[in-house]
Structures are given as C-alpha cells and as structure tokens.
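ok new one. same drill as before - structure tokens go in, u give me an amino acid for every spot. 480 of them this time. try not to just spam alanines like last time pls lmao
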C-alpha cells in the first residue's frame, strides 16, 4: 500500500495532542515524561522521514472545506505535502511540543494555555501544506487569533496588545495581496495556477509586509522583548516559542507566493512611484525629524540616522529591489536581537528565534535553491533545539546538543554565504553577506559564552565535536 500525504500530517497532529495529554496528567511519572518526549520528537521527525517515500500522485488532495462567491462555483481548499511543507510541518510540531513542555513545567499556568498551543500547532501544520492562497489567508487569521489569545496569557498586556495589532494588520496585508491578484482573473487561487504575470511588485510588497508583521521582523520585533512581571520562569521560553509558528507560517506563505513569479527574485522591483511623490516623501521625512528636534529641544540622533536612510531610499527608490528591502529588514532584525541578547544574555532564548526567522528571510530574498535549502535546515535545527531546551537534559548531553546544533546552523550559514556570491545584483549580495555574517557572529558569541560558563572537560569537547561533524556530514548527504 502506497503512503499518502495524510499519514505524516495526522501522526504529527495526534502526536501533539498526546504529548499535551501526558504532560497535564495530575500525577506525572518518569515514564509519562519519557513517553511524551519520544512522541513529541517522533511527531516532528516523521514528516521528514516519510516525505521521500510518498508518491507524487499521492502527495496532494482537496479538503472537505469549500466556499463559493456569490453566483460563483464552489471552490475546495487544496493541500500538498512537498519539501517545504514537510519541513514546515516538522518545525511547527517541534516548536509546539517545546512550548507544551515549557508551559507544563510548573503549576502556574492558565487552564486554556495548553489547549491554545494544540490549536496553534494544528493550524500551523495545515498552513504548511496548504496550496491555496485564500485558504492560507483564512488559516492565518485563525492562527493570529489563537496566537494573540495565548500571548495575553504569557506576556505583559501592552506587549500582547501590540502583538495582536501587528497580527491583525498582517492578515489585512495578505487580504490586500489576494485582492490585487484577483484583478488579473484566473480559475483558481492555487499557487500553481496563479499566472506569473499576475504577481506585481505591489502584491509582493503587501504580502511581505504581512509576513514581516507575523514574523516580527524589524521594526516590529521589539514587543517580544517586554518581559512579564513576577517570577514566572516557565513563561520566559514561551515568549519566543509562541510567536514562532505564526512567523513560520506567514514566511512559508510568502515563499510560495514569491515562487509563483518563476523568475529571479532579485529582479522584483518596487511599485511604481513618480519623482514628485518621492520628493514629497523625502521632504516629509526631513520635516518630521525637524519637528522631533523642536519638540524634544535636543538633536535626535536616532531620528536623524533613520531620516537619512529613509530620505536616501526615497530618492533612490527607482533603483530599489524587493530583495534589498527584505534583506535590510532581516539584517536589522539580527542586529536588534544581537544587541538585546548581548546586553541581557537571558534574552537569547527569545532572540535566537528572531535570528532563525531572519535567516529564513535571507534565504527567501536570495531566491536560489541552495540558499533556501540552507535556510530551511537552520529552521529545522532551531525547532529541534527548542524541544531539547524545553526538557531537562544531563549536562553532558545538553553540551553535545548545544555544540552540534550550533555547528549545523553555522555550516548552513556558510553554505548561504557561498550561494550569495553567485547573485547578480551587487547590493543584494552585500546585504545578504552582511546578514549572514551577523547571524553567524551572534551564534558564535552565545556559543562561546555558554561553553565558558559550562567549562566542559576535554573529552566532552572532543565527543561534541565528533557528534557535530557526523551530524553535519549526514545532513549534507541527505540534502545533497
């Protein structure tokens, strides 16, 4: 009997639910914790393991959910388990399993939190394999509602409210992108059936803004770093984990939409804007900086720097490309996460997820198969590390996991750096290399800090190095 795409997806979905049941038992025992960890890891790994054995004819289908416009035909939501969907479903399962372990670590939790985490996991898995833009937008709205509700349970109310507003605006940006696509007509909103000529720079920009709001790229990232009041240690990890499924899902939708262009993504420009409008925007930027200076009666250094950058972007708007804007946002996100985590090392549990999403965006903006494969490898590694960090491991095992995951991610960043040298656009190449170097730098900084604190013996260092080398070679063989 041939495998179908539903089998790994159902296994991951049921696995998340079983892990939650085992973790909320009133009297947990050692075997329940071990079983929950084993099932959680299996739910994250099974889609990756079974995907190569699923025939192409059995990799997709249509859901029972359908809708119709007024006077129009009925349309059924389509799904397909491809390589991107398999990695997305695995990463979503791992992040949610890690969040469930973190949420059930102590007794001080809201009764609805675990149920919301299960809903977030199931919705994200569905989004990872959805092959229809309209169905993806509807699921993004559902995911935004679940994520915003859960954020109010683990974050300060101002931070949760700001995050909910970002998610709501992000959904509207994706709706705007769908409306712009509808102007060109078409029999379906399935990604494979959308005409490449229907994807205009305005559509890509609207979807990118929506995905950036979901992913928390700069300047939308600071809300995640507002710490909850009181001694709630188990909620610290959740501040980063809760936002990851939404950011992952929106980034994958953007990836599929950009892939519809079937061309070099570095050639995607910006929406047309005449010279007069650009001049007015530049004058408005200068005026706003002057107003800030008059109101504060000091020279606003940050406002002046931001104003200079925006004025230069407005004047050189005609030569800007979408990839340059996406790479600049990713670079600023990494720099912000670096500054926050180096000033407060405990914030690395939150900042590392932002660095992962920024690396994924760098891979999308570069648009080459090698860069995308490396970015997805970084995502999958970070998701599995999230599970490891949410459970207690003996010090020697924790050190091996730490070194192995860091080496795999640094190797993937190196592969992305090599791929960046093949890009045709000079500014895109420069921004991509800067982002890759920044991501590698912050990874090395925190790796050295944690190793210095642990002070492992030489034999453990050698074992960790061997494990990291063998794991990296295995991934190279599998991905190659």
């Amino acid at each position: 009997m041939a495998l179908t795409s539903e089998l790994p997806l159902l296994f991951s979905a049921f696995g998340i639910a079983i892990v939650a049941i085992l973790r909320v038992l009133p009297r947990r025992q050692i075997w329940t914790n071990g079983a929950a960890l084993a099932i959680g890891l299996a739910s994250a790994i099974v889609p990756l393991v079974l995907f190569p054995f699923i025939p192409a004819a059995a990799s997709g289908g249509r859901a029972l959910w359908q809708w119709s416009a007024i006077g129009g035909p009925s349309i059924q939501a389509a799904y397909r388990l491809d390589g991107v969907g398999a990695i997305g479903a695995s990463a979503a399962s791992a992040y949610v399993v890690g969040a469930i372990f973190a949420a059930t670590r102590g007794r001080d939790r809201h009764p609805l939190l675990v149920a919301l985490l299960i809903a977030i996991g199931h919705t994200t898995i569905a989004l990872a394999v959805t092959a229809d833009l309209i169905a993806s937008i509807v699921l993004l709205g559902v995911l935004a509602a679940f994520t915003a509700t859960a954020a109010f349970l683990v974050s300060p109310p101002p931070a949760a409210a700001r995050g909910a507003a970002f998610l709501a605006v992000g959904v509207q940006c994706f709706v705007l992108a769908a409306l712009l696509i509808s102007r060109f007509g078409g029999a379906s909103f399935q990604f494979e059936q959308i005409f490449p000529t229907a994807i205009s720079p305005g559509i890509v920009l609207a979807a990118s803004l929506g995905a950036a709001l979901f992913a928390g790229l700069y300047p939308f990232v600071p809300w995640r770093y507002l710490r909850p009041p009181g001694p709630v240690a188990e909620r610290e990890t959740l501040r980063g984990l809760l936002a990851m499924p939404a950011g992952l899902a929106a980034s994958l939708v953007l990836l599929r939409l950009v892939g519809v262009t079937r061309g070099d993504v570095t050639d995607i420009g910006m929406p047309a804007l005449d010279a007069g409008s650009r001049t007015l925007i530049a004058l408005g930027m200068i005026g706003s900086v002057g107003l800030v200076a008059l109101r504060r009666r000091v020279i606003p250094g940050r406002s002046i720097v931001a104003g200079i950058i925006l004025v230069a972007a407005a004047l050189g708007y005609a030569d800007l490309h979408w990839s340059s804007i996406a790479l600049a946002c990713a670079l600023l996100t990494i720099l912000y996460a670096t500054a926050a985590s180096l000033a407060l090392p405990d914030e690395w549990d939150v900042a590392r997820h932002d660095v992962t999403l920024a690396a994924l965006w760098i891979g999308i903006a570069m648009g080459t198969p090698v860069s995308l494969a490396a970015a997805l490898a970084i995502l999958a590694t970070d998701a599995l590390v999230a599970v490891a960090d949410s459970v207690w491991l003996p010090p020697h095992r924790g050190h091996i996991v730490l070194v192995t995951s860091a080496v795999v991610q640094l190797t993937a960043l190196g592969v992305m750096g090599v791929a960046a040298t093949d890009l045709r656009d000079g500014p895109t190449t420069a921004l991509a290399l800067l982002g890759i170097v920044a991501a590698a730098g912050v990874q090395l900084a925190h790796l050295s800090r944690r190793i210095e604190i642990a002070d492992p013996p030489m034999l453990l260092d050698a074992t960790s190095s061997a494990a990291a080398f063998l794991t990296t070679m295995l991934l190279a063989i599998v991905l190659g």
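The mean pLDDT is 80. and btw Residues 426-454 form the longest helix (29 residues).
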